[in-house]
Amino acid sequence: MLTANELKLAAARKALEFVPDDAVIGIGTGSTVNLFIDELAAIKGRIKGAVSSSEASTARLKAHHIPVYDLNTIDEMPIYVDGADEVNHYLHMIKGGGGALTREKIVAAAAQEFICIADESKYVDVLGKFPLPIEVIPMARSFVARELVKLGGHPEMRHDFVTDNGNIILDVHDLAIAKPVELEERINQLPGVVTCGLFARRRADVLVLARQGGVEVLR
Ligand code: 5RP
């Protein structure tokens, strides 16, 4: 029986097969991505470098002497590699458990292909058991929370946490997410919301899913 960490490592290793030569690639955030960065270090001579989605990933990339580029200087990025808190069969995701959702969404949007790396515990029929993270501008906290209650959720402020952009996170419990694209659009339209952790409009293109029986590649 493989541990969760061993499964994450298996997904991270498999994802190396998607890394093209001489490219700048997008890098997500989280414990699965940390393992991917460590694996990437072994083949770093094959790539030009990375665009990072968080201060934490930037620090880890730099510790491995992998060049980190400002997104504004890059006009082509073939892949973005990131984990997820939940991913469904349509490859819609909930992300933001680490609080890096906004930069993750930006870097993902700039990439041609989103490669999601995950262990089987993340693969679900319906999104929403994991509380949906939403990055909110601090002055809008109460207003946005009230609007989220109207949508049927129970928002909880993430304590002692400030995003890399200086904002807060509301984690929304008890949302039954039957229509991820519609809900993502609806929440993102609320004034004060920077972005929500639903990645459905721009879903993953490839899911590298580590299971006890082996690693599967789903599209
Ligand atoms: C961070 C994220 C992560 O991708 C997500 O939380 C999964 O993290 P982990 O690989 O540690 O389970 O969205 O904002």
From TrEMBL:
Entry-linked InterPro entries: NagB/RpiA_transferase-like, Ribose5P_isomerase_typA_subgr, Ribose5P_isomerase_type_A
UniProt-listed GO biological process terms: D-ribose metabolic process; pentose-phosphate shunt, non-oxidative branch
Catalytic activity: aldehydo-D-ribose 5-phosphate = D-ribulose 5-phosphate
Highest taxon, organism lineage: Bacteria
GO molecular function: ribose-5-phosphate isomerase activity
Active site: E104 (proton acceptor)
Keywords: Isomerase
CDD domains for this protein: RPI_A
The protein's assembly and partners: Homodimer.
UniProt-recorded name of the protein: Ribose-5-phosphate isomerase A
Gene designation per UniProt: rpiA
